[in-house]
What does this fold into?
Amino acid sequence: PLNYYHALFVFGDFNYRVELPRETVLTYLENGDAGMLIKKDQLLRAMSEGAAFFGFQEGQLSFLPTYRMLRGREGYSDEKFRIPSWTDRVLW
It folds into this structure.
């Protein structure tokens, strides 16, 4: 049982996304407004509703989404037109 441990960490490349259209997300990113994107983050919503990772916490998202970010330069990939999101997460 999990209650034998003092701490439990989950590291993962989750498939939770930002629930907004891609163009809307890109506009918020261009304006540096991650606040609205955080409000639409699927993982945070699922955790607050008790639908996933009940009892776990996550540090504050103080950086822009990294999923689909271009390497070595600014911007996000158009490949498959996926929505930029926070997918690499650490929960405890």
Observations:
- Strands lie at 10-13, 88-91.
- The radius of gyration is 15 Å.
